[in-house]
Write a structure and sequence with these properties.
The structure is a homodimer.
Chain A: E1 9-13, H1 18-28, E2 32-37, H2 57-62, E3 67-71, H3 76-86, E4 95-99, H4 108-114, E5 119-124, H5 134-137, H6 143-147, H7 162-185, E6 189-194, H8 195-205, H9 208-215, E7 230-235, E8 241-246, H10 249-258, H11 262-272, H12 279-284, H13 286-298, H14 302-310, E9 315-318, H15 322-330, E10 338-343, E11 346-352, E12 356-358, E13 361-362, H16 375-382, H17 387-395, E14 399-400
Parallel strand pairs in A: 1-2, 1-4, 2-3, 4-5, 5-6
Antiparallel strand pairs in A: 3-14, 7-8, 8-9, 10-11, 12-13
Helix pairs in contact in A: 1-7, 7-8
């Protein structure tokens, strides 16, 4: 199968999570993505997590399949080469993603003067242009205040950079929407996308802000209880924990059946004059439900619980650490979205391909490429420079050649 | 400006979060999106959060601008109408998003037999077709085990359905990538996307699995400390909390300067033989840095801290509850991505438009439409049925007419 974005060429100049994820997602769908990296290597080249010898697993994970063109943007000649790459002709080119750092070097109007139909996605921190990052934005929209356990004073900022991920994926959608518009009417697009706006918008889409306003108060802190239905974690006989969730009526009835608690809940429904078939009622009586179900979980290992749940519609998830996911992967138990990927300068790494499957197959993915691996190719193939010209740029350290991200 | 996806027509048949978010995101970019709803109203019509009189704010938030066509899919005639809508001709049609529930009624091969170039995104729980949901998937990939505070035995499952959001946004990217491929070579696409794969892939992309495997252990639980750089929350004089993050060297130097701690850190660097200009060193010495900085925060209100940070590159975020975000919005202090949107059957609601800005403007968004609002339009305009035929379908309850989501 031809990869869906085969033939498309995107230039990307970003760092941290959202921009690189956008570039990698496009590359995993088959686009040729060139990242413009500094000649001395990207700031992400040493970012944690690191492997045992200090090489960045962050960098190797978020740069898979993306080409690296190393240019010194602080020098006008380097900037001009980058601008020429961004605005190079072709129906399948003229696509550009940058972020706040890129703004120093890539002015939208100047780029558009060079290529009027450029589709340019600019990723920001705040919509006013100030820098921001996930870990500092997430607290602003209530997530850590609601996540904290009922017995903790301190809010709990979760470790997943969820807004970075959402921003990267929205940047991809924005770019492809801009491409579709251009194919239709030849127009270019200036698209701005702020991490802070992504957090605000999605919390608002989910109804959290309207709820606080219209009900005159914040939703309660719930520990691990799910809001608005029944879902909470249970301790199993082997000390492991699982979460069990029943949102639909069918899931709830299956949960009652598999735990053998029909008679207890029937009696409780009568005593409390409540119909637990309603998801809101299950939420209101969550502590009672948890207490009734707990002994069933406590009498079984997590494996037994998961096994029993298989014949039902109840959704059960086991709490695992990353090491436990790795062990399950090595036993062949995990989804084929996880793969070992070879990369230059380091041993093959456990990482992933795109979760988008085409014709029932995962697309192939390749590893991260050393900084500057594609400088010569880009300057020669796209800009038509001669070997001599490229050599001169390299001698003057305006264009960089291959370098493996250094050990710390 | 013409909205980027104006003219495009997408049929969607999903519920919960990921699918509706995909549909709404496409609608906010200008596509005409029809959701096929059950005649009796969607299961999401009563989903929490609810307003004071029991109307779903979840539904109103995630259905903005999406048309509703109510059909009884349990009856062959209703199924045939839905299939005809999905496979209706047109270069800008033949685009379909469904989820696990849709699978009962929409077989991919049967749809492709009707329209060979259909672009079909099928959202799943697990890649093998079993149901799953965010709250039960998230524990499987280590996030709650790493999020929990160091003094808690129980893992902490964060409240944000981050994987649902990522899945919805990837579905949009998949659909647009499939559309681009079709425009190029006329091919249709079968695209499957599992929530569980989205979680596995992104945790792997971030390097968390390779880290655990290559280093032979899981990263430590860090409370609210950021991993790999310096970032943690501080208590302010007024009892509020803020998070302060310094990832780059410039941010770190600004943090030291604004807090007047240059001499202390210089002495500590000498005493510990460490260079705190390195982000990994800041991470390793995070407890010490936190202790040195805490008095500066404790002596100032959160507002004073935020004000002082403005003249620096340090990233500071205030912990707010949703109510506090609402209050700031009403004072005119929030991003214009947040908007009040009118909808039939309920008062205007505080929600959001798309965070993707085009030509420096947010696109307009409209409110959720009552179930079945667009049944007549779709059957008449797209399928060419007469008023009499539509009347007969309505009489037999195969096609539904308008109904406002009920109060509980």
């Amino acid at each position: 199968m031809t990869a869906p974005l085969a033939g498309l060429r995107v230039v990307e100049a970003t760092s941290f999570v959202a921009g690189p994820l956008a570039g990698m997602t496009l590359a995993q769908l088959g686009a040729t993505v060139l990242r413009i990296d500094p000649v001395e290597g990207s700031v992400d080249g040493g970012r944690w997590p690191l492997d045992r010898v200090g090489r960045s697993l962050f960098w190797a994970g978020l740069n898979k399949g993306v080409r690296s063109v190393a240019l010194d943007l602080r020098i006008p000649e380097g900037q001009e080469l980058a601008t020429a790459l961004v605005t190079a002709p072709g129906d399948d080119a003229g696509l550009f993603v940058d972020n706040t750092i890129g703004r120093l070097y890539f002015d939208h109007d100047r780029l558009r003067a060079r290529r009027e139909d450029l589709v340019h996605v600019h990723i920001q921190g705040y919509a006013d242009g100030r820098a921001a990052m996930d870990y500092a934005v997430n607290p602003r929209y209530g997530v850590p205040m609601l996540t904290r356990h009922t017995d903790l004073d301190r809010p709990t900022n979760h470790v997943l950079p969820a807004w970075d991920i959402a921003t990267g994926l929205l940047a991809v959608s924005g770019l492809l929407a801009g491409l579709r518009r251009r194919a239709l009417d030849g127009q270019g697009s200036r698209i701005d996308l702020a991490l802070d706006d992504v957090a605000a918008a999605h919390v608002a889409h989910l109804g959290w802000l309207a709820e606080a306003e219209e009900n005159g108060r914040d939703r309660p802190r719930l520990g691990n209880h799910m809001y608005g239905a029944f879902g909470v974690d249970f301790a199993c006989a082997d000390g492991r924990r699982v979460i069990a969730v029943a949102i639909t009526r069918q899931q709830w009835r299956d949960l009652v059946r598999v735990t053998g608690t029909e008679k207890v809940f029937a009696a409780l429904e009568t005593a409390h004059e409540v119909d637990l078939d309603e998801e809101g009622a299950r939420f209101e009586h969550r502590a009672l439900i948890e207490a009734v179900l707990a002994p069933w979980f406590a009498a079984r290992t997590a494996a037994e619980v998961l096994d029993a749940a298989k014949s039902t519609r109840v959704m059960v998830g086991e709490f695992r650490t990353p090491s436990e996911v790795v062990a399950a992967y090595r036993r062949g138990e995990e989804s084929a979205v996880l793969v070992d990927v070879a990369a230059e300068g380091r041993p093959p790494m456990l990482t992933a391909t795109s979760p988008l499957r085409w014709d029932e197959r995962y697309l192939e993915t390749s590893g991260a490429r050393p900084f500057g691996s594609d400088t010569h190719w880009a300057l020669s193939e796209i800009l038509g420079l001669s070997d001599r010209e490229i050599g001169s740029l390299a001698d003057r350290k305006i264009a960089g050649s291959r370098s493996v991200p250094g050990r710390r």
